[in-house]
Design brief:
By secondary structure, this protein is mainly β. It folds into 2 domains: 2-163, Immunoglobulin-like; 182-214. Helices cover 11% and strands 29% of the residues. The protein is built from 2 helices and 12 strands, in the order E-E-E-E-E-E-E-E-E-E-E-E-H-H. It has helices spanning 190-199, 201-213; strands at residues 2-3, 30-33, 36-39, 56-64, 77-78, 82-85, 90-97, 103-107, 120-124, 129-135, 141-146, 158-163. The strands form 2 sheets. It has a 7-stranded mixed sheet with strand order 2-3-9-8-11-12-6, with no helix packed on it. Strands 1, 4, 5, 7 and 10 form a 5-stranded mixed sheet that branches. Strand 2 (30-33) and strand 3 (36-39) form a beta hairpin. Helix 1 packs antiparallel against helix 2 (201-213). It is globular, with a radius of gyration of 20 Å.
């Protein structure tokens, strides 16, 4: 839901804890608490190209095994896989973990001058809820949202943040895009080719006849 008025988030500020145990995260601002962690939170610093905060978006997204029903092979899932926001808007995510293992809601590709390593990250412990806030960039672009824990993205926790009109759909998003990346140079009958190769020379012959008829 979008609110045109910026909310006062000063009461949400907490001391940050710098986590230096992982070298790639040493420059990140991280708040770690018993219920989880928030990395690179940003309530007010504007991205380049933004003259002001354009409004507020708030989302509540749940994660857990109970949402892993939309695609074959999924083990984990989310209640929502696409998050559409306006450029320069402040985005608040309340992340509800319904499982007994940790889950994350992470955005990749954000401006590195504002978000170290280009990431905004929420992690919720098993059975806990965690809230974090960031400001969307000014460009129309689509960003990967996922859980970075081992095999969680591959098993279903993959979504997209669409800023403005976006820049196309991220591949492999449940209910939105193909489950695998199809390079532009591949023919439309790639899946048929895979099946034909599996069947051997007989399958390749059938494929060649089929494409000749098209």
């Amino acid at each position: 839901m979008l609110s045109g008025q910026a909310q006062d988030h000063a009461s949400h500020s907490r001391p940050t804890v710098n986590q230096n145990s992982h070298s790639s995260h040493s420059s990140h601002s991280m708040v770690v608490e018993a219920d989880g962690a928030v990395m690179n939170q940003n309530f007010s610093q504007l991205p380049r190209g933004c003259s002001q905060i354009s409004g507020d978006h708030t989302f509540t997204v749940s994660a857990g095994r109970s949402y892993a029903k939309t695609e074959p092979g999924m083990i984990f899932g989310m209640s929502q896989y696409e998050f559409a926001v306006n450029p320069c808007s402040r985005v608040t995510i309340t992340f509800v973990n319904e499982d007994d293992v940790r889950h994350q809601w992470m955005v990749h590709g954000l401006p590195k001058y504002l978000y170290p390593a280009g990431m905004f990250h929420i992690e919720a412990s098993g059975g806990r809820t965690k809230t974090g806030t960031f400001i969307a960039p000014s460009e129309n672009r689509s960003y990967l949202v996922h859980c970075d824990l081992a095999q969680h993205m591959e098993k279903g926790m993959r979504g997209q943040l669409k800023v403005g009109t976006g820049s196309g759909d991220i591949w492999g998003v449940s209910g939105i895009s193909d489950s695998f990346y199809r390079a532009d140079y591949l023919p439309d009958y790639t899946l048929e080719l895979v099946i034909a190769l599996f069947l051997g020379s007989f399958g390749v012959t059938l494929l060649l006849k089929n494409t000749a008829w098209k």
